[in-house]
Specification:
Helix content is 21%, strand content 25%. It is an alpha+beta fold and 256 residues long.
């Protein structure tokens, strides 16, 4: 599996039938209605997300933080060859996501760092839990090994499938448009590291581009990248705090 992960520019692999089917179905059935989630709709993306997990069925929080257990992290390190990874209990850009008919995610690079800009984002873990999801349904992960002007390879968002994807300066990825009147549900985690995956230090904001058939959108989004990157060079932690984090109300010892 490690050879499979390392065989592309955007390093990746999948693990099918991750959990017993009844457990995967329980997670799927626990997903909230999209009306209770945050809608993100722009030229960049169209989807629903949530990170404040104590508002939802507890099974969702359980599965998210199961991926953060030390033993699981060690197994993922063996699969990917990426060492000294640390999960993110704040769920910065992690948590759950739902994509309904016509939703999409344009080609992009994830923000290179954690919310405090102290560690590099190095791995994306995407666990898909919608039964009977096929290639024809759309909403599948696209990995752009040749960059956003090339052609992507596609990973179907198959039920009970975990996709592992490295995140670095070349890990362009997207989700193609949902074609069916159903919801594609995903549990997301990111791992971080003090060391970048590449052999040099770098920083970039979340950077969206247009698809090859979207030249005008691509120009607009390139301008957006330049503007936000410039702002972050001046204000290292940004001007506006990213609200997509899990703000826990109690400490580990149970005291507020």
């Amino acid at each position: 599996m490690r050879e499979d992960f390392a065989s592309h520019v955007v390093q990746s692999c999948v693990i099918d039938d991750l959990l017993p089917e009844e457990e995967a179905l329980r997670i799927s059935e626990a997903f909230p209605d999209k009306s209770t989630m945050t809608l993100k709709k722009s030229l960049r993306e169209y989807k629903y997300v949530a990170a404040q997990m104590d508002r939802y069925n507890s099974v969702l929080e359980e599965i998210i933080f199961a991926f953060q257990q030390p033993g699981v992290v060690r197994v993922v390190e063996e699969i990917t060859g990426i060492r000294e990874m640390v999960p993110d209990e704040n769920l910065y850009a992690g948590g759950i996501s739902l994509m309904a008919k016509d939703n999409y995610l344009n080609p992009h690079l994830d923000n290179s760092h954690d919310k405090d800009r102290q560690a590099y984002r190095v791995l994306n873990l995407l666990y898909y839990v919608t039964p009977d999801w096929s290639h024809e349904s759309g909403g599948n992960l696209e990995l752009w090994d040749e960059g956003p002007k090339g052609q992507p390879r596609e990973i179907v968002s198959k039920f009970n499938r975990l996709a592992l994807m490295a995140t670095h300066q070349k890990s362009w990825h997207s989700v193609n448009q949902i074609r069916v009147d159903r919801s594609r549900c995903c549990v997301s985690n990111y791992y971080f590291s003090a060391k970048p995956l590449e052999d040099h230090e770098y920083f970039h904001v979340t950077s969206f581009r247009g698809r090859p058939e979207q030249p005008v959108r691509d120009l607009v989004l390139q301008g957006d990248i330049a503007l936000r990157q410039g702002i972050r060079k001046v204000f290292k932690k940004g001007v506006v705090e990213n609200p997509h984090v899990y703000k826990k109300t109690e400490s580990d010892d149970g005291k507020i």
